[in-house]
């Protein structure tokens, strides 16, 4: 199994700024083609943990992430008429900020977006810990998404009830094919699941050594003992994450470098395996968006050009 390492950097930043401001769909398409060629030229292969994009700065990471999401949205709307995207909380939402700016705020077909959460804290939607509130304040209130397409949890229920209710909502949307279904697992097949990762290697609310990592039957489950506050959360299970068409893990900062190393590198069977390492889409594509500090402990000797 192989993975691609892409030291991602805009060498023609003036050109990129011009395009971000004035891009027509045609120019944007051409610009993406140029970037693809740059990436192919810089990419190398390693033991497969997906494609790894390493960025010089948070600004470049944010632009690349916005491009990536916009491209997947365009492809999904073309193919299925809708784009079913699951968000996470934490630093991810701030890194998606470029989607609120030109050209994405105008070129993305926001009316076709259906929003879900890969995990949510069981708190009121107005609470500072709410992943919904974070996304609403940072993204959803700034772009023309249709309110009825935003599927957040019912915050008046217990964690267990909220997980069951959320799974029921997703089941209805699978029936109407707003969310596709995986031919392999019978799980929902989201067009894109966006994950962050904690310094302990947790993704969504799948924490190290937690029994929830073994859940194979439920689509959405709950925990009441999260090692990171708040304790009560709902989360997509690994089978759902690994059934997605695309999964992106967005990680920044040197406090996460060790977890990135353990999640991506070929570390051998005796090493600790963080939950992020269990993100292995069955048929979908996995992309890591890293900044340099987060990538600083990756074993470059495993890369081959
Ligand atoms: O608690 C959570 O943490 C992770 C990671 O957050 P970050 O701020 O370190 O990026 C996040 O992805 C998850 O959705 C959230 O509930």
Report on the architecture of this protein.
The protein is an alpha/beta fold and 305 residues long. The protein has one domain (2-302): 3-Layer(aba) Sandwich (Rossmann fold), CATH 3.40.50. It is built from 9 helices and 13 strands. Strand 12 (246-251), helix 9 (257-264) and strand 13 (285-291) form a beta-alpha-beta unit. The longest helix is centred in the first third of the chain and has 23 residues, at 58-80. The protein binds the ligand O=C1O[C@H](COP(=O)(O)O)[C@@H](O)[C@H](O)[C@H]1O. The site of the ligand O=C1O[C@H](COP(=O)(O)O)[C@@H](O)[C@H](O)[C@H]1O has 14 residues, from helix 4.
Summarize the model shown.
This protein has helices spanning 13-22, 25-42, 58-80, 91-95, 104-107, 131-140, 159-175, 238-241, 257-264; strands spanning 2-8, 44-47, 50-55, 83-87, 113-117, 119-121, 180-181, 188-189, 192-195, 220-223, 233-236, 246-251, 285-291.
């Amino acid at each position: 199994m192989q993975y691609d390492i892409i030291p991602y950097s805009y060498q023609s930043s003036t050109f990129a700024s011009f395009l971000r401001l004035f891009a027509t769909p045609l120019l944007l398409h051409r610009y993406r083609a140029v970037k693809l060629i740059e990436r192919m030229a810089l990419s190398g292969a390693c033991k497969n943990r997906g494609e790894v994009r390493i960025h010089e700065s948070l600004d470049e990471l944010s632009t690349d992430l916005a491009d990536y999401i916009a491209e997947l949205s365009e492809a999904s709307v073309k193919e299925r008429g809708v784009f079913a995207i699951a968000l996470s909380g934490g630093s991810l939402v701030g890194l998606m900020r470029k989607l609120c700016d030109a050209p994405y705020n105008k070129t993305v077909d926001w009316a076709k977006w259906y929003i879900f959460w890969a995990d949510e804290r069981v708190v009121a939607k107005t609470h500072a810990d709410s992943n919904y509130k974070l996304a609403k304040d940072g993204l959803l209130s700034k772009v023309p998404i249709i309110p009825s397409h935003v599927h957040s949890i019912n915050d008046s229920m217990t964690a267990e009830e909220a997980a069951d209710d959320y799974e029921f909502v997703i089941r209805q949307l699978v029936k109407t094919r707003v969310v596709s279904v995986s031919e392999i697992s019978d799980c929902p097949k989201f067009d894109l699941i966006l994950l962050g990762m904690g310094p302990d290697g947790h993704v969504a609310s799948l924490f190290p050594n937690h029994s929830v990592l073994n859940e194979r039957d439920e689509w959405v489950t709950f925990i009441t003992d999260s090692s990171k506050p708040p304790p009560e959360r709902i989360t997509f299970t690994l089978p759902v994450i690994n059934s997605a068409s695309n999964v992106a893990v967005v990680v920044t900062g040197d406090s996460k470098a060790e977890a990135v190393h353990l999640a991506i590198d070929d570390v051998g069977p005796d090493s600790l395996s963080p939950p992020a390492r269990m993100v292995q889409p069955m048929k979908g594509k996995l992309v890591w968006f890293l900044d340099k500090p987060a990538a600083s402990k990756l074993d470059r000797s495993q890369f081959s050009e």
